Amino acid sequence: MSTKEKAKEDVQVDTLEQPLNEIVVYNDDVNTFDHVIDTLIYACDHTPEQAEQCSIIVHYKGQCTVKTGAYKELEPRCSMLLEAGLSAEII
Questions:
Q1: Per-residue burial over 13-30, b = 16 or more CB atoms within 10 Å of its CB, e = otherwise
Q2: Alpha-carbon distance 39 to 53, whole Å?
Q3: Count of structural domains, the chain
Q4: Is the pTM of this model over 0.85?
């Protein structure tokens, strides 16, 4: 009988954590549900179901986080929402 030793090796991994930002869309009295849904599909790559749910949340709660990620990735998406006439900001 032979004995085998197993050595455990501790590996330390350094990761760079980027803080996540959010695009928040706010309710307004100007845009229709269809316009908000179409814009979320286009600008945020939402499915039709996601976009519809977000538009309902915006309507009843006053705001909804529609996309989360690094600021660099969210900035062009938020610009598209603003250009389409939606009230949105990155927080």
A1: eeeeeeeebebbbebeee
A2: 13
A3: 1
A4: no
Q: Domain for residue 21, yes or no?
A: no
Q: Are 90 and 23 in contact (CB under 8 A)?
A: yes
Domain extent, residue 86, equals: 30-90
What is the pLDDT, as a whole number, of residue 18?
Answer: 72
Higher pLDDT, 1 or 51: 51
Give the number of C-alpha atoms closer than 13 A to the C-alpha of residue 64, restricted to the C-beta side. 19
The band of 86, judged by pLDDT with boundaries at 50, 70 and 90, is very high
